[in-house]
Amino acid sequence: MIKLNLMKVLGIETSCDDTSMGVVENGKLISMVRSSSEEFHIRYGGVVPEIAARKHLELFPFVLKEVLEKGKLKLRDIEGISVTFGPGLVGSLLVGIELAKSLSFLLKVPFIGVNHLEGHIYSIFFEHKIDFPFLTLLISGGHTEIIIVQDHLKYKIIGTTLDDACGEIIDKIGRKLGFPYPAGKELDKLALRGNPNKYNFTLPRFKDIKRKFSFSFSGMKTQALNIINSKNFVIEDLVSSLFGGISEVLLDRVRLVSKETGITNISVVGGVSASKFLRKRFEKEKGLNFYFPSPEFSTDNGGMIALVGEEYLKKGFFSPFDLDAMSHLKLGENSYLKCDKI
Ligand code: KG4
Ligand code: ZN
Description:
Blueprint: E1 8-13, E2 18-25, E3 28-36, H1 38-41, H2 49-70, E4 80-86, H3 90-107, E5 111-115, H4 116-122, E6 134-139, E7 144-151, E8 154-160, H5 166-176, H6 184-193, H7 218-230, H8 235-261, E9 265-269, H9 276-283, E10 289-291, H10 295-298, H11 302-314, E11 317-318, E12 337-338
Residues 16, 140-142, 167, 170-171, 182-185, 188, 270-272, 274-275, 299-300 line the site of 5'-O-[(R)-(carboxyoxy)(hydroxy)phosphoryl]adenosine (KG4).
């Protein structure tokens, strides 16, 4: 296997409403910029795909310029390009993919399409060194998964949500309470001030083998909506109890998987892992070692995409120019070629 002596890899992330780019060099982040179109979606209560795609188009030249300036780099210093090609909003993904292809063509450097979820898994490596195998709990606006990370680029999904993702119910309850999208950060502050034992949220458990590691959040969402509709509640206590319930469900599945696999090192990644409430609760847990990224690496960012890309490119993988956006891409589904030389 030819090991490419790559120095600087540019990562491009445009799967949802964040236009973000990062540059890594030998596993270290040297520059990162993130610009969000959140404010343009607020009045609609969620991300509007058409608006998100147009905003990526508008923002990417500025983000690219800034990420290079911050890293004191010239465009010609970039030796590899990594881009999210799924899962996500097709129109948004396409902006990043076309940019990656154009830069690859222009600079005559390889490019690789990576899975957004792989990016979140890799986000932990900026600040922590964890021995393989370890577990990853990925909690974001679109995903809730427990994954065994067996080695670099080798994953096994153990459990996933059967309905809503945990960030999704936080955002939906937030919207009902009148908070702008995404509501996670604001609700997290409220949760820290309330009584988490005020409301008893039903915690789903599945007895059958196939679903025992799965998650379900739709029952909790209905319970929270019913309480809000009753108009008789203290907001801090409701949100605190909801965050408490979500934490308990997540911890319950992590305990189960840890018991079954014997793995006690667990990284918690994705936007919801930025929650201070959740971190406090998880850190009280005995017998399990939790690793959290800094909040800037919890939410979507181009740095994590660059880091995964570097791992692939170093091993001689690259993507063909007909790489397409894959809105429902699963972890482990890839689209690359293996080369001896580039
Ligand atoms: O990973 P991410 O940026 O995008 C996806 O891939 O979905 O995650 C976004 C999610 C949203 O649901 C947002 O409300 C939630 O992460 N979030 C938080 C916090 N910051 C962002 N949830 C709880 N506490 C936070 N501090
Ligand atoms: Zn994400």
